[in-house]
Each structure stands twice: as C-alpha cells, then as structure tokens.
Design a protein that fits this description.
The structure is a homotetramer. Chain A is an alpha+beta fold. The first copy, chain A, has one domain: Thiol Ester Dehydrase, Chain A. Chain A contains 2 helices and 8 strands, in the order H-E-E-E-E-H-E-E-E-E. In chain A, strand 3 and strand 4 form a beta hairpin. Chains A and D meet through helix 2 and strand 5 of A and helix 2 and strand 5 of D. Strand 5 of chain B pairs antiparallel with strand 5 of chain C.
Chain lengths: ~140, ~140, ~140, ~140
Amino acid sequence: MTTTRELAAFLAQEFPQTKVMVESVGGGGARVRHAIGFDELRPGGTVSGPVLMGVADVGLYVAICGAVGLTTDVATTNLTTNFLRMPSGEADIIGDCRLLKVGRTLIIGEVSLFSEGDDRPVAHVVGTYARLGRQHP
Amino acid sequence: MTTTRELAAFLAQEFPQTKVMVESVGGGGARVRHAIGFDELRPGGTVSGPVLMGVADVGLYVAICGAVGLTTDVATTNLTTNFLRMPSGEADIIGDCRLLKVGRTLIIGEVSLFSEGDDRPVAHVVGTYARLGRQHP
Amino acid sequence: MTTTRELAAFLAQEFPQTKVMVESVGGGGARVRHAIGFDELRPGGTVSGPVLMGVADVGLYVAICGAVGLTTDVATTNLTTNFLRMPSGEADIIGDCRLLKVGRTLIIGEVSLFSEGDDRPVAHVVGTYARLGRQHP
Amino acid sequence: MTTTRELAAFLAQEFPQTKVMVESVGGGGARVRHAIGFDELRPGGTVSGPVLMGVADVGLYVAICGAVGLTTDVATTNLTTNFLRMPSGEADIIGDCRLLKVGRTLIIGEVSLFSEGDDRPVAHVVGTYARLGRQHP
C-alpha cells in the first residue's frame, strides 16, 4: 500500500518541475492541489487551461500510482477536458480524481477540478493511460 | 418541478422510437433503464456501442428536462464515450446521469452506465448540449 | 492487401446486423455509406445521433481491417463525437475515415461524416481501438 | 481580412505570456509554431502534454480570429486530445489547425501537432469554443 507521503516524495523526484501537491491518495482515487500565482494566470485574471489540464493529468497519475504502485511506465493517451466555469485567480485549484477502470493495458479515470472554497466544478476531465509494461523498481 | 411520471409521458410522446425508460429524475440528475434483447446485441453476446451511447444521450436529455423544464430545444453538440467493460447481454443497461453545469447556452453532464446487478461501470459518457432558445409550450 | 470486396464480405459475415456498406478501403483509410430510412430518423426529420456514431465506429473498424488485416480482435475504447450540423433525412450518410496511428496496442482514427451531396461535415468523430492480441484465422 | 502579421501582433498584445508564433492564417485554418526548450520538457526528454494542448488551444484561437475577426470573446469549452507519439525534445512543435464549423454560438476545429521534420502527428486535438457575444473593438 503506497502512502500519501511516499507518493509525494516519488512525484517530487520523478517530476521535479511539477507544482502539483499530493493531499491524499487511496481507495481508487487521489486529491491534489496546485497553488495559483502569476505564472498560472491569463488575461482576465483566471487560471489558464493548460494549468487545469496539467493538474488533472498529474492527479490521475498519482491515483494510478496509488492503485498499482509507484511507476513511471504509464503514458497518457487521451485527455478530454470540459471547461465549466472561470476559476478564480486567487484560489488554489483542487483536483478530485477517481479511477473508473484499472485494466491490464488501459487505465481510465475522471477528475473534477475546483477553486478552493467553491463546490461548483470549474472543469471536468477524463483521461486514459496506457500501461507500458515495465514496473518501477 | 417536473415529476418522473410527467417526464416519462413527455419522452414517450416526443421520442416514440426510444426504448429508454425513466426511473427517476431530479436533483440535477436522472436514472434511466434500457431493456436488452436481440436488437441490442452484437457478435459475442454483448451490447452494441450505439445502444450504450443512445442510452446516455437520452438519459442526459431527461436530466436536462428535469432541471430546466420539458423542452425539445436542446441539441447534443458533443458526446465522449469511454468503453470500460463488456456489458452482459442478459441484463438491462442502467444509466446514472448527473449534470455538471447548467449554463445559459450550454449544459454539460456525465453518465455512468451499468449492467444491472454489477456495480462496475461498463461505460462512462460526457455530453454537451446547446440550448436553442425556445421553450416547449 | 485486403480488397474492398473482401472487406465487404467479411463485414457482412461478422456483423450481419450492420447496414454500413464499404465503398473503398486502403491507404490508411476507408469510405463507408449508410442508407437513411424511417428507422434512422428522429423527430424533426434528421438522422439520430446513435446512427451517426455507429457509422463512424464501423467505418474506423473497416479502415483498421484494411490496415492490419481482417480481424475481430479490436475493441472500441473511446469514441468522441462532435455534432456539427443537422443531417438531411433524405440523403445517405457518408463516412470518410482516416487512421492517425496504428500502434502495437492502440489504433486511433478520425471520421468526417457527410450527408451525400453536401460537403460540409455533419459530424466529426475520433475513435480509439485496443488490439486484443488475437488475429482472425 | 485579417493578415498573419495583424494576428501575430494581436496575439502578442492580448496574450503576452504565450510562446506560440503564428506562421500563417486564413482559409478556415492556421499554422502555428512553438519553440521547445528546457521549460517544455519532462523526464525522458519529450515535450510535456500541457505544452502540446496549449499550442493546439492557441492555434485554434488564431484560426478563429482569422475567420471571424480579432476577438477576445471566445472561450474554450471542450478540448479533446489524443497523444499519438512521443514528440522529440529537440524539434519545434508545429500545429496545423482547421475549423470544422463556425456557428453563431459554437466554433469547432481540429489540430494535428507535429515535431518539425517528421510528418507523423504526435497528437491530435479537437476543440470547441463558445462565442461570448462581444466583438473586440
């Protein structure tokens, strides 16, 4: 069983450039957080689309590691994003991630993204991941 | 407030060719059912993809009518389906539908589809609907 | 090299319930046709969404068989449809299918759907197929 | 008629943080380019997914401005990405963008993304944009 602490350390080591923080993992899901500052904004004071999609992608990766063990051998094959509301530029983005299927070759999950403090989702993402066949040692 | 009975009658009148049955509606969602027989199967004894996608599409339409009133003035603009597991050819298909956003021009929702009696989803669908601007009288 | 005639015969044998006709196949793509009659219509005299999605799904399957050989061992894993314009209820639906990637485990393709005689697409579909590992004898 | 030069200047003014460069625009499409350096890479020496999705999103926005005039009043509502091949970390990313429909309320387009010098697409994106109703002065 991978703990939240182990997963956060693994993510920091393998993906040093990500700003996504692991809040919890387990039970076929994960909860992640991304602080929002100048770099994440676009004109109008809202969070840019690529930031939202990146949070979802990393969040699903974290959920996958929680389910199958620490691995770098999954690759995103499809990411479908629906943008629902303008996120606040002054609140962290929270990603609630849930795996829909953990198959032998494909893993599929969904993410609801929120601005912290508002329970209406700002975006919804479905992602598909291919298992490449090698386990992280 | 549209009742389940009103919605079932409206669906039967406006879409006489659909086999989808309304089980419940309200609270920003709906639950629908589709009986499975020879016409819904494909080789291998499983339910065909177009049947699954049709159940989700009608289910989201039902959820929309439950949220905004009886209307024929919405049109599906996007339907994204992930096929997760082979549905049984001997169980009804159940669709659990939930609206993610009811906007002025777009409505977005998701559906988890199940073979009755198995709680692992056979497919997951996200749909977008455009409001055409006319209300049903 | 699979010919159009071989593929049409294979489709009729393996999927006897489909009404999709193979017009051409090869070069990493296919062109298919579906006649439109009462069964394909919905209120308003237009073609139903599930029919359009079914044509695209079969068309991509035909293109795949043209590329990798006659096989029943592929399964649709994702189908993303954008509905662009109301199809005529009085014209055949034509599907122009093109494979984007033929990988070892996944095959991805896109389809533009037209009402015959009008060169503006009525829908656009992207589909992903998993190769299950067994070849048709 | 919006020229490529006008569009490049408009993009630089309205989205000063984007690194996307406009190569050409017109005829219902656009071609854009994104240089790849350390910031765009992820472990393994390939281009990160959010960079690819961002190039497609900006490219479709450019194509839209070419079709309907310079405007900031469109919002991405859906972005569906299929990742096809690992992009090279040493080549620019090129986006070939084509609009599928320019409607009164929705605009839909597709993008094929390439590593410069290789004609096999690294990703394929379909995007939907809502027109918010205000024109840029």
